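pasting for ref
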Amino acid sequence: MVQFNDLPRGVTQLRAPARSAAGDTGSVAELVTEILDAVRTRGDAAVADYARRFDKSELAVFEVTDAERTAALAGLDQQTRADTEFAIANVRRFAEAQLATMLPLEMEALPGVHMGHRVIPLETVGCYVPGGRYPLLSAPIMTIVPAKVAGVDTVIACLPPNAHPAMIAGCHLSGADRIFRIGGAQAIAAMAYGTETVPQVTKIVGPGNAFVNEAKRQVFGPVGIDQLAGPSEIYVLADHTGDAEMIATDLLAQAEHDVRTRVGLITTDAKLAAAVEAEVKRQLTELATAETAAQAWRDYGEIAVCDSEEAMIAYSDLIAAEHLQVHTQDAQAFAKRLRNYGSLFIGELASVVYSDKCSGTNHTLPTMAAGRYTGGLWVGAYVKIATHQWLTPEGVNAVAPPAVRQSASEGLDGHRRAAQLRLDRLQAR
């Protein structure tokens, strides 16, 4: 997490965040540990207990039946279904194009030394689909569709018991093989350890609240996870050509997600900085979700003015924002100079909202500066690249002698013997 005093040279904060989004999660680790232990030892019974406790749910059966899937699908109005299928098609198209860049490999590195790799889909993936305050119809699309494109054998979806029926329809249309009405840390536990009804998965993906995030952190190891997701983030990089109304609109579009959303403007134009702050205040007077967005802006909003493009880029790369928009005179050229971000939106016509909903790139992205070392969820997260090798006698003659010598110098006699045995057998022939 970037600290407020970690400013590169040439950067001045006109408006600094009042709080740290990374430090405002509270202590949830102890409760999550309790939930994980209970589900691991008591299975479905513990899941039911926590469903009653946290979700006020008395479900006797967690899995969504085929009839319930059909009913949820029938409950979608025609336009919502068409829009959902439009988004699914776009996400699938992009994931298929990404997968096409990941190819098997076979090569002869040395005469007689053959090696390569395979692109192997994971067996079972668990997709956590958050409920939230609104039915986020894009959420299942972003986690389930790339898994199916990758060739995952079984895709499990878990969503809170009180999730909107449209979310079940979204999971179904996206291709989920099984859907469970289980939310929170108990859903992560059920997928990580398996219960009487929920199969154990190989990897868990998808965003959630602080309890879901902590549960993913604690189960990591025996199962994989995509990433640890913090509150949403958006930053806009702009020069004198920036449009204050458009920038303010995009900042507030993300701020309405959550009161802990981190929003910011980094600019080389002090006049634009002042205009954006004024425009944010104006738009908050008419925004239907202003209660949430205003709190996010008050606590986590930031405006920084830089004395050069170099300072603007340095500060942006330090923050490594989840969503990064470029509103500069030559946005394409400027974008090529950026290094750290979750997803990049080049030019003022490329709004984060398009990616959030339906354009095709994935909206499950790194937060809290994780964009310095990783990208977002993509089709490659659902496969593994596993290497292999095979040798001919000529290959053994090439690699065994240096392997024998290296093993001997390291004092690893077992290694030396394993390398020497094949060489001796070949020489004896």
